Every structure is written in C-alpha cells, then in structure tokens.
Amino acid sequence: MASSPCGSNGSSSSFDSGLEIKTRSVEQTLIPLVSQITTLINHKDKPKKSEKTLHAIQRVGQAVNLAVGRFVTVGEAIALENEELKEEMSFACLEARRAGDTIAQLTDVITLDQPESDERATIFSDKTGMVKAARMLLSSVTKVLVLADRIVIKQIINSRNKVLVTLEHLEKVSSFQEFVQIFSQFGNEMVEFAHLTGDRQNDLKDEKKKARMAAARAVLEKCTMMLLTASKTCLRHPDCESARINKDGVFHRMRLALDQVIEIVTDSRTSGEGEVQVVSIYTGIKEFKNRVEGLRENLYIVSKDNLLAMLDAMLEHTEDFTDSAYTSHEHRECILELSRQARVELEQLITAWIQAQSFKAKEANEEFEVAILKTCQCMNVLKRELHNAAVELTTDLLKHHAEHTVLKALKISGGDGKLEAVAEYTCKLSEQKEQLVEACRLLRHISGTEPLEITCIHAEDTFQVIGPQIFSAAQTLALHPSSKIAKENLEVFCEAWESQLSDMSVLLREINDVFEGRRGEKRTYLSLPRPGKHSANLKMVKPVKLDAEEQTTIAKLGLELRLLTSDVDSESEKWEDQEHEIVRQSQCMSSMAYSMYLFTRGEGLLKTTQDLFHQAEVFAEEGYKLNSSLQAFCLQLRDNERAVLAPEMEKLVVLCQQLHASAKTPVQGKNATFLKVDSSIQNTKSIINVIVYILPLCNQIIRKNKLEKSSLESSQSWGENQFHTPANEDRLSEKTANGFGVKSLEHHMASLTFLESK
User: Fold this and answer.
1) What does the pLDDT read at residue 755?
2) Residue 738 pLDDT
3) Distance CA 724, CA 720 (A)
C-alpha cells in the first residue's frame, strides 16, 4: 500500500476517506488493485512505444475494468439486501464503475497509430485524469469492502442478540422439559456464533484484539457445559441457595464474554480495556532501552527528566515482585539490588550525557557509549531476574498442584455430605487460587508480547471466577450428597480448573520461548481452531490411539518441524521491517506449525486428529495468502530477481494444494488416520522449509534495492522499470490474468461470511 498511486502531493487522504481497514481479507483484496494501478500510472513515457507495450497497457486497463464490473455487481446485490447500507453502497459502487470505465477509456491505446492527430484523452496525454480515476477507484472499492465488512459485524451482533434472548429464557425456566427444549435452541445459536466469531478472529489485523477475542470465545466454550450442569442442579434443587449462586455466576460470566466479543468487533471502549493497557515491566524495559540507545544517534532525542520518569515508573512495577509473599528471599534481594544499580547507572549515564552535550557533539563519544552499554546491560540483567522469579514461582505451583489433591478431597467430602470438611478444603483451594492469581500477575509482567499479556490476564480472571464457583458447587453437593446432577456439576467445574492449569503450563513454555528468542510472537495458544465442518457436526469422532512405534514416528516428525519453526523465527528477526506482510504471514504460519508440534507431544489446543487436520487446512489457506503477498512483492522486482523467487513460489503453491487436499480427505480406521497425520506433518514441514528459503532471499533483495534506491532519481523507479524492456512488457500482460484481475476481488467477496447466506 506504500506505493499508492495517490502520489506524493498530499492526496492520500482522498484514498483513506476516513476508512480504517481492520481485517486482513480487505487489506489483501486491495493489494493487487494497488499494484495494477501503480503499474499503469508509473510507466515511463517514451517518444516511441512498441505495439507490445500498447497491448499490455490496454489489457491491464480492460482487466481492471472487468474485475471492477463484477465486483460492483456483487456490491449492488448486497445493497439491495441491506436497506440501511443501500444508499452508501450504491453510491460507492457507482463511483467504482465510473472509475473503472474511465481507466478502460484512458488505456484504450491500440488505435493510436497517429497519436498527435487524435484529440481523445489517453493515459499518455492525460496523466492527471488517470491519477484522479485511480484515486476514485481505490477509495470507492475500499468503501464497498468496508461497508461489506459492516454486514459481517451486523451478523455477529444479531447472532449475539439471539443468544442473549435465549440465555434469558434459560435463566427463567422452571421445568426440565422446557429447559431441554430451550437449551437445544441455545446450542444451535452458540454454534452459529462460534462460526462467525471464529472467522472474525482469524481475519483481524490487530493481534491484541485477536487475543482478546480468543479469550472471550474460550470463556463461552467452557461456560456452555457449566451452564448446562449448573442449571440442571438448580432445577433439581430449587431451594438451594448455593446452587442458585453457582448458576448465577455462570450466566453472568457468559454475558460478560458476549459483551466483550461485541466490544472487539465494534471497536468500542470499555472499562475493562484499561486493565489490559497497563504497561508491563517487559514493555517498560524495552521502551527505556530504546530511548537510551537512541542517544547514540541524537543526544537531544529525549530529556533527562523523561528518562528518569521512565525508570521510576518501571521500577515501581518491580514492587509487584518484591512485595509478593510468594517471591523467594533470594529473588527479592537480587531485584532490589538491581533496581538500586539501575538508578546508579542512569545517574552515570546522565553525567556522561551532559558532558557530551557540553562539547556540542552530535553523537555519543566513547565514555558516553560505555555508559549506554552499562545501563542497557543492567536492564537486561534485571529483566532476566524478574523472568526467573516469575517462572520459578509458576513452575513450583504447577508441580505442587499437578495431582489436584485439594479438588479430589473436595469431591469426596461433598459426596460424603461433610460440610465441615468441604469448608476446610475450600479454604485450601482459596489459598491455591491466590497463589495462581499472583503467578499470573507476575507472568504478565515478563510475558514479552501483548497477546501473551492478554492471555495471562485471561488466566488470572479464570482462576478468580472458577474458584468461588467450585466452592458453591461443592457446598451444594455436601447439602445433597445423593444428587447425581450436583456431583456432575462439581466435576465440570473441577475439570475447568484443571484445564486452566494445563493451559497455564503451555503459556509458561511459550513465555520462556519468547524470552529466549525462540519465538517471534506466540499465537498458537491464543487462537482457537477456526470452526469448520468438524465443529458443526455435533457427533463426536471416535479418538484414535496410536501405538508406541507410531507415536515415536510422529514425535520425530514433530521435533523436525519444531526446529524449522525456529529457523523461520531466526530469519524473520533479520528483517528491518518486522511489520512487512511477508514476515507477518511467515510468523503466523510458523506459529500454526508450532501448534502441530505441540500436538505431537500431546500438548496445546489441538487435542484430536480432527483438530490437527483442520489446523492443516487453515495452514494451507495461509500458505495461499503468503503466495499472494509474494506475487505482489514480485511486481516490484527486476526479471532476474523474480526468476530466483518464482520456482520457490511454485513449489509453495503445489505443497499447499497437496496439504489442503489431504486435510479435507476423510479417512476411517487407525492405519489410515496415522498415514494422514504423517502426511499432514510431512507436508507442513516441506512448506515451512520453503519459507525458510524464501525469507532470506526476499530480505536480501529488499536490502539490495534499498541501497540502490538512493542513487535513483525517483522513489517510484521500480514502477518505472516495468516498461523498460520487452520482458517487462510480457510481465505486464501476465499481470492481466493474475493481478487485480477478476480472481482477487471475486475470491474475497465469495469468502466473506455474509455471502454464505445467499
């Protein structure tokens, strides 16, 4: 999008039109269009134009117009079906159609045998008109896509509203027969809501919002079973106060999660958002170090007061560790000593800084450089000490509570009707809850990424909420020890607690990986598998048990896959632009592959082979998206550079096709399932291998062209080169079929959720 044909004359606002693109699907749809329009506008005017050049220009213009026509047809159909957006959508479609027609007319250059005698405006004679048409096209197409996205949001809101109405009915039922009937309807509505929100989660560009959506959906998933047993218990024992409290807690939590989903998709601000935005120590140290290191280039980039305030704020957060009753004496003393040392190092840095400024130096001298290094090193040591303190506490807690002794005792005491024993074990579980909550708070400080911070907050909230619910469920069972439904209800809440402990173990490993630099950004734990055919089918697939030899084979494959994901992360870190689409998509695919590795170890969110196959299917789809980004990237390259990437891109597409087909092919029986698992991981491994090869190639090309760019006359020279040689003219013709063309827009429009109802 950086090479927008809006030009450099301050006209980019006409393209933006106040529209914020929040989803990857909309963004990816616009990239080919921008590339095609840029190609047309940035061609280099030459006195003599070959017939091949003229044909290429005309083909691109016609392809753009044809694609816009089909795109607009879909947009107009949507306008007819959605009265509230009809006026805006119709106007945007009309603008897009006009712009497409104008571009087709301006690129109709084949008949220009004697251009000097032809008064008709063309791309050669009316460059301003072409730029104006391009702006209008980009703005109107973006408008159509964003309006279409509003319909997806509307679907999610309507689905949530249906769930809320049914939830209210469920809360008020007074008979089992009525409850069963309404709960069946509720289940169907929740499946629909899960589909819509799952697609939205995967389409969001903002990783923070994606993590919040995953947390809310995880709450809804777990609460659905809790709601069933808590409601049945309350119906069986209508006069039991603890049963009512237990049920009310579930309904309240579900409503909060439903509201959070809507807050995310509508981008509304809430009081809960403030808690997520509290700066962690990890973030504070990172920002502080960036400011200090920035002094090397510019001695006046930040003020001394600002640096002192940053350090004070960061060290204030370390009190969460030093004031914690669960931090060991050794860690507490070490953190306090490192905090004192950090203040000393900053004072020495400021002294050297003032001295350097007094010499009116523009950059850091040797003494100042040493002070910078010592300050940053002190921060690194402090960060590691805080990390070790949080990880050590969490590891000890997870080991200590691995046998779930208190939960087992609670269930036995409740089943025996021993209220005093239940009260005793409730106190012990309350202590355990406080320890785990404290561990979550400390982990959040050193988590390393915003998505993992949000996951820590989600884990903390879960322990805070489920603890009291276990207490009320255990009390209900103790009051009604012969009640099977009360026993089942307590079992469900205890399983939720155990599940959260298991999730916390995975989270701890991911935080460790981020700290040690083995992972660029963890998304596996945060992203629930996208709903698909398997999740829509309520019949459970019978699990397949692999024998020891098969497990060994799969584990070996998983380890090889794990090593390759580390290579992807390593190559990604070498890129200057960490937000480059190729880097982000590669990291996303690496994280998906990592989740498959966790599956081979019996860990992570992929619990069954069906989960694995669905993850493989989504992984293949992400591979297609990466290939689209690579194609857009190649449009900016010379022929020799493109020739290096082309074979690897072809290989990537073939491998993704194989994986996608394999993942969607149904199998039965143990042997067939094992072979499919083996094939899925092998194909994933091959795709990651290609990515490991492509990443450094692209990075090298970008660096090389960046060095050359300074000697070129215009920042748009890559675009101008596209008309310099016959080979580039051929490429322009090829883009007619593969660029903006018809494929990208039609593929996007067909994939949008709102079209599934047509």
Assistant:
1) 25
2) 33
3) 7
In this structure, the chain runs to a length of: 758
User: Can you tell me the distance from the alpha carbon of 345 to that of 288, in angstroms, rounded to the nearest whole number?
Assistant: 13
Cβ-contact 603, 506 below 8 angstroms: yes
Q: How far apart are CA 683 and CA 262, in angstroms?
A: 37
Is the predicted pLDDT of residue 238 greater than 70, yes or no?
yes
Task: Supply the Cα-derived Rg of the chain in whole angstroms.
Answer: 30
Quick one: which of 9, 271, 24 has its CA closest to 128? Answer: 9
* CA separation for the pair 286, 310 (Å, rounded): 11
Q: Which of 35, 3, 15 is nearest to 629 (CA)?
A: 35
Contact assessment for residue 456 and residue 216, using Cβ atoms and an 8 Å cutoff: no
Q: d(Cα 504, Cα 398) in Å, to the nearest integer?
A: 8
Beta bridge partners of 204: 23
In the block, which residue shows the tokens 């050297």? 352
CA-CA-CA-CA torsion sign (656, 657, 663, 668): negative
**Angstrom distance (rounded) from CA 32 to CA 36:** 6
In contact, 207 and 521? CB cutoff 8 Å: yes
Residue 162: helix, strand or coil by DSSP? helix
d(CA 260, CA 267): 10
Residues 614 and 704: their CA atoms lie apart, in Å, by 39
Rounded CA separation 68/57 (Å): 17
**Residue 144, both tokens:** 């159509």
Give me the pLDDT at residue 205, please: 83
User: By three-state DSSP, how is residue 120 classified?
Assistant: coil
DSSP at 543: P
- Show the tokens assigned to 156: 């999610």
CA 526 – CA 595 distance, rounded (Å): 11
What is the rounded distance in angstroms from the CA atom of residue 731 to the CA atom of residue 637? 11
Residue 735: which of 124, 40, 25, 1 has the closest Cα? 40
φ, ψ (nearest 5 deg) of residue 527 = -100, 115
Question: What was the pLDDT predicted at 412?
Answer: 95
Q: Alpha helix (H) ranges present in 108-175?
A: 127-172
Reported as a single tens digit per residue, the pLDDT across 512-527 is 888 877 654 434 333 3
Tell me the mean pLDDT in the region 556-579.
83
Phi, psi of 541 (to 5 degrees): -80, 135
Closest by CA position to 113, among listed 41, 46, 49, 40: 49
| Half-sphere CA count of 741, side-chain side, radius 13 A | 13
CA distance 592 to 573: 18
pLDDT in tens, 179-200: 989 998 998 898 889 888 988 8
Name the residue among 733, 741, 740 with its Cα closest to residue 50.
Answer: 733
Per DSSP, the three-state class of 663 is: helix
Helix-strand-coil split of the chain, %, nearest 5: 80, 0, 20
**Tell me, what amino acid is at 658?**
Q
Residue 687's pLDDT is 95
pLDDT band per the 50, 70, 90 thresholds, residue 334: very high
| Of 159, 162, 156, 168, the residue nearest 227 (C-alpha) | 168
Report which secondary-structure segment, H or E, holds 399: helix 366-400
